[in-house]
Amino acid sequence: MVAAADGDREAIAPLFHALWPIAVRYAIRLVGDAALAEDCVQDALVRLFGQLERYDRERDALTWALTLVTWQCRTARRRRDRRGELGAPPAPAPGAGPDGAALDGASLVEHRDLVRAALAALESLGPRDIETIAAAVGDAERAAITPATFRKRLERALARFRTSWRSRHGTL
To answer: Taking CA atoms, which of 18, 50, 74, 149 is between 20 and 30 Å from 28?
Structure first.
């Protein structure tokens, strides 16, 4: 980094090749999406190489690079979250079941009672369990963890949900 900051253009390629894999792995943990992480790292490294003259030789180069990546990832997450809020699916029509079909009076009452019971059982779970179940059904963003870890968390969360349901309503 010092050589690149001093104007040695030959040092830029090795610096890029050293920073890229570390920064991408770090960004994937922050945003949870490999393509978005690569975009963030690319933008951050463009800023870094454009500001090489500002590099403080007393500080760690990797820390400076990862700080730029962190800010880029935060910005990207905020943009993605804002877009997600705008693109939320429309609520089902009143009197419609989960599949969109119209319900008669008795079915509507039964559906409403089942939804309330399921929500009550979900509320008895911890925040991580609720987040995991919501991510599994597509109503929330999935945590940036390995698929195997996510499956295990989901398995445990659903087991706790079943236990909560059984304690309130009998069998599931």
So the answer is: 50
- 43 burial level (CB within 10 Å; 0-12, 13-18, 19+): middle
- At 121-160, the pLDDT tens digits run 888 888 888 888 888 877 667 778 888 888 898 899 889 8
Q: Residue with structure tokens 């590099």? A: 55
**CATH 1.10.10-classified regions of the chain:** 105-169
- The CATH number given to 2-86 is 1.10.1740
pTM over 0.70: no
List, by residue range, all CATH 1.10.1740 domains of the chain. 2-86
pLDDT digits (tens, 9 = 90+) for 48-79: 888 888 888 888 888 888 999 999 999 888 88
